Amino acid sequence: MEGRRTFKRTVGQTDSYNASYKHRDLGERLADRITAIPIAQNTPITSACGSLKTALQTHRKWICENATTPRLKPVIRCAVAGWISILFLLVSQLEEFMGQAGFLIMIAAFISPPSDSIAATVERELIILAFVSIAFGWNCLAMKVGSIARKAIVSLASTSDIYAGRYIEAVPSIICAVFLCVGSSSLLYFKARKGPGPYLFAAFLGCTCLDISLTVAPLFPYPYYSIALATFVPIAFHSAITIACSILIFPETVNTQFKTRLRSVLIPLVDAFEQQPELLSRSRVAPDFDVQPFTRLLAKSEAALVPLAASVRLINRDVSWGRFGADDLTKLHQTARRLTVRANGMAFFFKIMDPFSENFPSTPGASRAGSPAATPYQSRPPSPSPLHEGTPSSPKYPSSVSSRRRRHQRQHSFPYGRQNFLFHIALNHTQENAVGVFESQKYLNLESRFNHPENDYFADSAMNLLGTCSTDLLKSSADALRHVISWLEKADSNGLIGFQNRTPRESWEEAIQQNENAKMSLERTLRDFREKKRHLVLDLYRPAFESQQSTDAPPHRYLFQCFVYQYHIMQFAGQLCKMIEEIDRIEKIRRHPRLWFPTVSIRKTIFSMKWDRSEDPNEDGDEDPDMIPGIDLDVSEELGAARRRDPDALPPRHRLQAIGILMHYFIVGLGRGNTVFAIKAGVLTALLSLPSFLPNTARFAYVNRFVWAIFMGQLTLSRFRGDTAYELTSRLLATFLGGVVGMVMWYASTGAGQGNAFGLAAVSAVCFPFFFFIRLYAPGPPMSKIIFLFTTQLVVGFSWQDRHIPSLASPGAGYQVAWRRFVLVSAGVTAAFLFSFLPPSTTLRRYIRMTYATTVAEIGQLYCDILSHANAPTYPEVRDIANNLTAIRTKLNRSKILRKHVVYELSLQGRWPTERYDMILKVQLEIAYLLSHLKSVVEHLEPAWAKAFLRRTRFLESDFQGVVLAVISLVSTALRTGTPLPQITPCPLLDRFTSDKNGFNAFRHNAEGDYGLPRSLTIETLENEQYLCFSVGVATAFGIVTRLDKLMVATKELVGEQYHIHGVGRSRPGLPRVPTKG
């Protein structure tokens, strides 16, 4: 069937590998039958059926992918937990015990279902309980302080008088409002500070408890602690139910989850490697030469590393039964991460071989008035530019003398008044001139130098030879990956290996033999490739070297490019051998299952719950643009290390000055993004809760549940206007649909109109599996799905309470609850949307720009760390370079999700330059990967070859490193401040990088010192594996330098240029003059 995965099995493997895929047939057959239903023509229902069929076909992919037994187990577990939760509402004794806010148990059931492993669920629920407990204590404190401020305590007040607002006093209401404002601000600050993760829902539930309790407390003429307890008890019951269901119903340990997620990393790699031989056999200029399927599979594999890292974080806290413990499996995660990076190195080879993707930066679209308007003459058609013209990008800081002079001249050239002059200025901003002209001129010279009349022939010949020599290793690697995946699948069972028809000893011995066979087969193929087959690519150069006419050899870059692919495939196979060897080791020492306990202490577990990357990269939530999750920003304390200084103050000399500096940091911190957002959220909360504190509107606010508007306002308000605007539409749609579905559930179960416990339980039992399937697997923002689902439960829960626990403040049932819910949600989200425009206001446009500035700066730091490690391998690393590079890539990939909300921002600036930010994102991701490749290369170079590599690439020259770091600093600063870049910069760096024409040689013939390496190049030197690593390092450094040039041009395209010097840069005779204005 189309889209179904099929894998070849090696000898000795069983059918257990394909067991998980048999379950996909059920989902696919179901979807086929549904979408194949014949539709009668010319009938009243034709249109409706056609729309239904189209919708089913649209959602068929994600439904089929998740309609498997392993994926349905969490759905069943969550549905059972949700059904037990609704029983707490249906059983009158439990409902009365929970109190007026018993509906919170249903909200919490859909906000925090037991969909994760036991350890993750317990951790999340403990965090929720901690936050709700703090909110409970804060509520009680507010009520106590408010009661002290009351003029009189009336213990026997009637309920009607209380809800009529007759006991509301000014001072207790102000106290409750202040406590509500401060408490909500603190929780929402924590939410913004930590970002998406286990703290997100805990903060929201804590805000819910504050909203309900502190808006009701002023109504009572005495401290009404019961309402605070009523918000705590349902959530406590929810946590108990969730933890119990995660343990008792299809329990999933972190150990098992780790193996499942590791398979998700490896399975796309199998498909990717199976595509390689056919791809290498095609010409790079052929129409069917398409690398996108390969790169998409690699992206899918790396995306699976994010949830795998979340499992690794918790695996040491897991309690599980099985053969393998946390320490046994952790090493497999490190190896899997290296596999994905090495596979990306193979993709880098296709990028540099593709003539349409690896061209030098050409003159991009125009960006700023004042830049030269004409591009220099080109001797050939320009390279395809990813930067488009015509996007408005007016300069924000036209403060140069030349711009003032031009503005003065334009002002005197319009006799029709200032209005026409301003209109002309507005139009003039859309007429952007070219940027990067001088870089383009130099790149034209470089391209002419690197151009060869037989480029296509040499490139296709090299690729064909590469495909011929690599096919066996590619196939052997794919077979080894299938073996590892099969082992992971069999190791999921709690038995020895999972065989039921053999004795444990036979199963164990067979598993050991399979591991050894897989390892020996891959090692044999890798050894053959390393010693013989990889030399096949030298056939293109062998005649020239054997005749000692190396000057007649094809350009060295084709050999270096082939070496890039060979290096990464050898490293991939080597890491895969290590993985199988590790599997074989733990198989031999772990023959029998046992009970594994956490390997970290409780104290370390509590104090190590710091912010971590979310398991879901698509999860919505605020995130600090100045922080990269997973990176420790502490700097080295080594003498002479580069450190930041305060430009406005000297270091403190005594304790009083140190205390003053701390106070200064605290005051300055109040103006930072997260703090400002928290203050705005607190003010919004106070304004939305104002009707609950006024005697004339208190009853109306309580009866109509104004607390929904308060909570939705808090939930919708984000740090960035684009997120708030997007959430406005998504919350309204989700609430409307949730209200409709909730009414359907209620009226389908109500029977005679008063509500039927058995009917509601039956309807919920039918609906909840579908609800949680949508909650867990449907595409789209998680919060929108949550709003939709818990709106259905609010309608059902309040309707049930209205019919069985009637009160003076009952909102009604069914339709009455649904329309009140929709109206109040509309009020809350609209208030948050309007409030987001009030100063200080932050846009997603600025967030994306600041994020990219932060990642560029961190890339520069990691670049220095890698070169420090290459120059002094024994130098202690301050940072975990591999983890930090992964964190940067995760941060950049997450920005793709947030950028989708930019279109919802209302801005007077005009259209957002999407393509320009796309280019900056793309180049930064490529640099991050290349730095990973560079780190790998320097680790495999011997000291002499490492010194030669650093000299060849000029990485030891302070002059060259100075301009490289200057470019990184210029780009980061320009992105952070929006300041135009100088028209003349150190770029192109490639001109400096290739100033010495070394060719195949490791260094110049006249260079001092050869580190014991041969000065004359022979075919034996080319066959040396150290020369291969050296060549890969040079090619990787070349890629980093060219992408830094691209990053500079892309940033110029975004922020524009300044400091024009007329006549500079026309180095070639016959170049046309570069005109300027004014």
Question: What do these coordinates show?
Answer:
It is a single chain. The protein is an all-alpha fold and 1078 residues long. Among the domains are: 15-66; 69-250 and 667-835, no CATH class; 844-1058. The longest helix is centred in the middle third of the chain and has 36 residues, at 455-490. It is globular. The protein starts with 18 loop residues before the first helix and ends in a 20-residue tail after the last strand. Mean pLDDT is 78; it is low at 1-45, 363-419, 421-427, 494-503, 610-614, 635-640 and 1068-1078.
Strands in their spatial order, largest beta sheet: 1-2
What's the N-to-C terminus distance? 68 Å
> What percentage of the residues does DSSP assign to strands (E)?
under 5%
Structural class: mainly alpha
List keywords for this structure.
40 helices; about 1100 residues; mainly alpha; disordered C terminus; about 0% strand; disordered N terminus; two-stranded antiparallel ribbon
